[in-house]
Amino acid sequence: MKKLRTKFIIFMYENSQKQYRKYFKKKKRQWQFNEEQLLSFKEDSLGRTLGEFYKNHGFRMIPKMENHDVYHLITDCSTNIQDEIAMQYLLFGNGKRSAYLLGVLALGTIVFPEYFKNYLNAFKKGQQMKTFHHWNFEELLWQNFDSLKDFIKQKENPVFY
């Protein structure tokens, strides 16, 4: 039964993401880098880490959706269906609001209710992170990946007296 539910979610994603990009991302431009160019970035950079992510998973960049793949890296969410839904909960906790995201939350919760505790934990994790969902990560590809990830995971900057 779980296999069938997973196939349903994949079907819904494959049949909605093109429309999402067309109608909700029409003003956004695609990144000026491809997967191969990302691999030429400095070894510890976000760009190189993202290039390796594509290479290791056999993925291709989806135009106008590049930030989504960065979200996987900085949130430690895998690409399985339940973690994709959990990542949307995390982004919701981080302050992201869109009709598409709300649809994923609703459908994901209905189709996989047994993961709701995980989803709630992801939501709380998103609340504990700096607000990053609106960042243009293309501008940060040269940054040290670990430093960037650590910065995002800190909700507030520590104050030293």
Automatic annotation (TrEMBL):
Superkingdom in the source lineage: Bacteria
InterPro entries: Coq4 (IPR007715)
Keyword Membrane: yes
UniProt KW keywords: Membrane, Transmembrane, Transmembrane helix, Ubiquinone
Transmembrane segments: 99-116
Name this protein carries in UniProt: Ubiquinone biosynthesis protein COQ4
Originating organism: Chryseobacterium luquanense
